[in-house]
Design a protein that fits this description.
- The complex is a heterodimer of chains A (about 350) and B (about 375).
- Chain A is of the alpha/beta class and about 350 residues long.
- Chain A has helices at about 1-15, 35-45, 60-70, 80-90, 105-130, 155-175, 180-185, 190-195, 200-230, 235-260, 265-280, 295-300, 305-320, 325-345; strands spanning about 25-30, 50-55, 75-80, 90-100, 140-150.
- Chain A has two domains: about 20-130, abc type-2 transporter like fold; about 155-345, no CATH class.
- Chain A has 14 helices and five strands.
- In chain A, strands 2-1-3-4 form a four-stranded mixed β-sheet, with helices on both faces.
- In chain A, helix 6 packs parallel to helix 10 (about 235-260).
- Chain B has two domains: about 1-40 and about 180-365, no CATH class; about 50-160, abc type-2 transporter like domain (abc type-2 transporter like fold), CATH 3.40.1710.
- Chain B contains 16 helices and five strands.
- Chain B has a four-stranded mixed β-sheet, sandwiched between helices.
- The longest helix of chain B has 30 residues, at about 125-155.
- The two termini of chain B are about 15 Å apart.
- The chains are: A alpha/beta (about 350), B alpha/beta (about 375).
- Strand 4 (about 90-100) of chain A pairs parallel with strand 5 of chain B, so a sheet runs across the interface.
Amino acid sequence: MIVIVMPVAMVLLFGYGINLDLKGLPVYVFDQEGSQQSQDLLKHFQASKYFHLVRVSTGYPEVTRALDDGHAKMGIVIPWDFSQRLRDGGPVEVQALVDASDDNTANVPIGYAQAVVQGYSAEMQVNWLGARGLSVQPVPVSVETRTWYNEDLESSVFIIPGVLALVMLVIGAFLTSLTIAREWERGTMEQLISTPVSAMEIMLGKLTPYFVLGILDTVVGAAIAIFWFHVPFRGSFVTLLAASAMFMVVVLSLGYFISVIAKSQFAACQIALIVAFLPAFLLSGFLFPIEQMPVALQWITRIFPARYYVSVLKKIFLKGTPAAMLNADLIPLAVFTVILALLATCSFHKRLD
Amino acid sequence: MLGRIKQMIVKEFIQVLRDKRTRFILIGPPIIQMLVFGYAATYEIHHVAKVVVDLDHSQESRDLVSRFTSSPYFDVRWQLSESRQLGDLIDQGKATVGLESHAGFAQQLRKGETAPLQVIVDATNSNTALIASSYISQISLGFARNYQQDRIYRVAPQLVEAMPSVVLEPRPWYNPNFSSRWFLVPGVIGSLTLVLVIMLTAFAVVREREIGTLEQIMVTPIRPAEFILGKTLPFFLLGLFDVLLIGTVGSLWFQVPFRGSICVLIAGVLLFLLCMLGVGLLISKVSSTQQQAMVTSFFYIMPAITFSGFGFPISTMPQWMQYITYALPLRYFLVVLRGPTSKASSWIFSGRKCWRCYALVSDSLR
């Protein structure tokens, strides 16, 4: 049950829940003048797909209240002598009050608003200069931006590949971290030790089902990502499976190791959360770009295998990087696989102490 | 009755604190996590690796490039004179942004035509790409504007003075420095508290059940309400301890100001803890094994954090998802933690929610 529901739920959750794109930002306008010119400027805002003029207010307090309540994310205040000052020449300021409490949704709209105002300003200048017999281009440089790998800048496309790593982590590290601890806690470990099964056999027996489930979940998760959310898949499926198998061994070994040393299910679960899940969530580049972290922290991210796997996932899905170019991620992942597998094998002894 | 509750509390404390590992888990990791995640969680961009291809080698194109070099947002790491390597550098992830000015860039400018500027942005992280391209167009437009003015100045200096222009004057409210830390550090504080408290309490009852000690408790004269109180209080105190610890470390270290009223904050913290205890105990109650409890609490924690507005704006979620967020205490707690944007009324919501959870648990145990 969990095995099927988990990847589906998590991919849907992140696919729909996380959206950092901005479109149709609610804007309140306080046009103190209401002249032809100020209307023109507002038309430029209306034409932009990033802004949605909710309301033309009649007073400053209404705008501030709307910002306070969260009804508006931006308030545009046009001065009462707007057209007068334009005729006089020189710069005229238009205020943009922005709710910056959510940094992410404030920085970008200010950029857009500035572009809108500049566009208006340039257009007006061209007309003004034209009237004085000087013909110029509105903006002499046109920026042609191409966004590679994720042409529409969809958040879901960037987030979903990383979710696969989280799913595997939960299946691998979390569920397995309880397996041995449970035997200790319930006292069935003594029974297990008295049987002729070797330590190696116990480990393989415990982990193989989870390995199969984990790989199955990767496939299910990838299928939803590709067919439901239309995340592009540009790389090779074999490479994806190989990297997933490696990562699965990593998380299983980690979970098993935790389970052996923790002895109680409670401690095991806490440790798994601290060393596996939270770092994978915040330090893997899944959401927050690693290269924007302080340098010391960038080094810390290197000790968490999830970082490499998330990087591989994104490269395979979005960039279609061939396996040979993934060495920078695959080699550390392989090293982690070997170290952790060895650690897990050596950690468990058939002894009662 | 008080005696029985006291015994229960003493027992719980002994159970939690006797294990060296658990003791450590309550103090060490929260601090480390607060510091590490506080640094990790940022949407700001600084020093984005950038590669510049200048095929024009003119005064103008150099001038444009130097504007990017002096910007804190970009690090011009490579300056190439042919465009072939540009794609490779971006493919390998060595550069996030590529800028290419084609041959004849300056000539077009001088002729008064519109000169195109090619920009390539690696959008694997769509958020970084969005912010970066917004900065790129700001910088290039700034260049274009100055160039235009210089041009006009050469032709007709008297016009430049009199030329009208409109400038936008942004007033970022609530967070004038645009620090995403101000926004995300409270989120990290709230989320860590949530994870910690849920994980602590989710095991509380089910462990007794699994080990078989629940039956022993059943035969003692303790009443369900007393049992619940005895289970809750220790975790409440531990949670309070951790919330204070995380909160102090987080706000002092990252210098996030708290601008709200202390009373609201205290009320918010207490109510939030109660909510989380309620949810945790409920999970513990309905699970029959600890593994189940963990999976269930995980299923709660994931959406609870994702939908709380911790790092992803609620306003951009689909409508049906926004309704879900109303049922999450963390959503309201974050509002309290982030301080006033005059949304103080929402903590009353949080209170209502919490009593509902709590009542549910007490009922279910009877």
